[in-house]
Amino acid sequence: MIVLDQKNRIFTLHTQNTTYQMKADQYNVLLHTYYGSRIDGFDLSALIQYGDRSFTPNPSEAGSNRNYSLDVMPQEYSTCGVGDFRLPSIELELANGSHTADMRYEGFRLEKGKYAMEGMPGFYSNEDETETLVITLKDAAAQVDMELYYSVFEDYDLITRTVRVVNQGTEEIRLCRCASLCLDFLRTDMDFITFNACHLMERCMDRGALRSGIQSVGSVRGISSHQHNPFVILCDRGADEDTGICYGAMLLYSGNFEAAVECSQYENSRLVMGIHPYHFCWTLEAGQAFTAPEAAMICSPDGFGQMSRQYHKAIRRHLLRDPYTGRRKPVLVNNWEATYFDFTADRLADIAREAAALGIELFVMDDGWFGSRNNDNCSLGDWQVNLDKLPGGLEALVSRIKNMGMKFGIWMEPEMVNEDSDLYRAHPDWALQVPGRAPSRGRGQLVLDFSRKDVRDHIYDQMKKVLSCVEISYLKWDMNRSLTDVWSVTLPARRQGEVYHRYVLGIYDLLERLHRDYPHILIEGCCGGGGRFDGGMLYYTPQIWCSDDTDAVDRLRIQYGTSFCYPVCTMGAHVSAVPNEQNGRVTPLKTRGITAMSGAFGYEMDLGKCTAEEKMEIRRQVESYKIYYDLLHDGDYYRLSSPFQDGIYTAWEHVSANRREALVSVVYDRNGAAPLFGTLRLKGLDPAFQYQINRTDSFYSGEILMKAGYPLPQMKGDYSAVQIYLRASE
Ligand code: GLA
Questions:
Q1: Does the pTM of the predicted model rise above 0.90?
Q2: Which of 181, 303, 309, 483 qualifies as a cystine partner to 273, CB 3.0-4.6 A?
Q3: Alpha-carbon distance 167 to 560, whole Å?
Q4: What percent of the chain clears pLDDT 90, i.e. is strictly above it?
Q5: Whose CA is nearest to atom 7 of ligand 1?
Q6: Closest CA to 272 of 259, 285, 281, 263
Q7: What is the mean pLDDT of residues 610-618?
Q8: What is the 720 CA–ligand 1 centroid distance (Å)?
Q9: Angle formed by the axes of helices 612-634 and 589-597, nearest 10°
Q10: Which residues sit opposite 13 in a β-bridge?
Q11: Catalytic residue among 534, 551, 581, 653
Q12: CA-CA distance, 313 to 16, in Å (whole number)?
């Protein structure tokens, strides 16, 4: 609900549990007056304290009033060069070389439904599900207009926002920074939580107290990156899964980003999040506009658990465009870890046949099927089938797979080119490179200049030939290096600061074309595993390969961190062979199944090598996944313990919306000779219900399970796991 107090120029956005307020003051500065637990009917600008503070400048309109300074007031969208020395949200370079921006309130409008994000990802809704507030600001001297957009998804406590900047003058201006989100707080006693690490260990949670100065995470790799994620949290120091206020900030963007928090003098702090200012400079000619990527905020007054569940629901219902919405996705088998590049059509057919017999429904052919690709140094860019490996082409292979009753999926890496490829030999200038400088390779490959439409068109034509020649149900869109040597032959010098962003818009363009032309194809995003796991990609690829690390124990950490923002159904997760290919760890097959099942489930191993007993276990897992699919994918997700705290087990729980069903998963870390007699307290159940345990005649009330706990079964061996299914008796 959006409440306007036009007389006092106060704008209040209410969600079910939260309130967000801003106010235009006497000098038309748009103040940010509150964000937090819901409060109705107040002007919260009373919280702002004015006073004479040295070295905090006073705007000219304030005359001799030294109590008024932009440098200390909480602002809705921070400016630069005119008296606020804290993190700017916008930086402008005008034709006269000045570098100041001073945006003042002009007016507002209300719209039904959600604002549109043209060519960029964004949450969507029906007209009657959301309301939008647009605040217009103006820098009269620079002749720049700005619109701040806010859409309110009440039920999810979600506020999405974006910013549009328009050059209303007659001369060219340069936009050097245009953040998507600015959030000011009149406090610094908070923790900043980020999700970091590296390839093979993505999105590990890192939590630390705010301290003076700027703390930031970001990416200048051209992708949102394995190293940091465009999702961060600010929260009470003591916040945990169930208590404390926390603010989630998610950027729906797949390229360079920055999320920075500044703690400044006088106990205030500011979070600014958006496209990374490194090598970003967008030229706006007279009349031209720029729109920043969307940011999505959820505030939870009741800890991280509630925040995550709200993100999960909002993402599932208002961001993903999944061809399987309302239907169960097929369980897949992927041949990568089974064969790498070394396969023939017969070998693939063998894997598929074994899989089909175990109830697996989709066969995915990974890297190595095109050009003359037998290693990772050639053929990217030549998307024609390798007839030596696959005689009879895709047609013959796919018809064999279909005859087994399976669907077929394929791997591609559209953004890349190898120097050893026909495409590169014909168009060496299509790869990103700086004149006079030999470009760096990553995994032996170069990056195609996706800011160019002609390059995208050519790749898309090739993709269409593949996707249209046989029935393809699934596409794995991979991307296996970071961007370097970012320069485009098609743009003039003053526009080279646009290439990173134009590249991202180029990916979105191609993905949107795929979505339009092949709406039935399930696209799984991938970037050396989870290097581009962000809300931007999720709009186009409703699931993303979570990590190249398939070890179940490492995956507990990766999936745990990922779950703070992203729902389980988006996390590509496969059972693979042991010793694990990445770290050599041996875990029980059951544990690998239970861990992968809390994701978009599949297998990535040579099933022909499994023993009869292992095959039985796999058949059981596939059946369980199918039975529990709705609970796993649509249920509420509760983290019951953290794999980062050196505990004895990691546990999590899925609960159905009506609370009548729940599935608890527990993976034990190490088992000692002394048995563990622990109880695990569950969450989200109905205290009054009697729950039947694992379809046996054992019953516990929801109250007991939540207050006292469930006695954990004794297990033997490292990394053993159990699943406990609860069903409320009628
Ligand atoms: C990346 C992906 C893997 C696999 C390989 C193929 O590393 O993350 O899953 O597809 O590429 O080259």
A1: yes
A2: 181
A3: 44
A4: 97
A5: 528
A6: 259
A7: 98
A8: 28
A9: 20
A10: 2, 20
A11: 534
A12: 14
